[in-house]
Amino acid sequence: GFRVAVVPLPGRGMEHFRVLVAAETQPFVDESMHSLLGQARTVVALPYPAGLTIWLVWATHRWWKNRRSLKRVRPAPMGATDGAESIMRGGVNVKSSLRQRGPGRPVSPDMGAGRLSTASFAEDTFKRNKALGM
Question: SS3 helix, strand, coil % of the chain, rounded to 5?
Fold first, then answer.
């Protein structure tokens, strides 16, 4: 159904004009506009899950890199002087012997005490076995 109203216009000299208003009692729905509104809501809401996904990937990557950098290393034996301090973050020994490879490093007779590199450990074991005649 429709509702119809006829109202006279107020004002001097306008008494003989009338306004006719007709309105449908059911809500007005235009299908093309309704689908366009749904698409607009999707376009507005789409960046939020995408941004959240990107942020989660970034935060997970940052957490993984931090965890990887804090992995525990084999501690130096008691009484070792070369590299006896922790090489973890904030340790006293800033210049660790972990990545120093070359002839400038002294070879200790006790199979690389204080060194944390497996390559130098194997090299020291080989030199010790060779010196002992094995």
Answer: 40, 10, 50
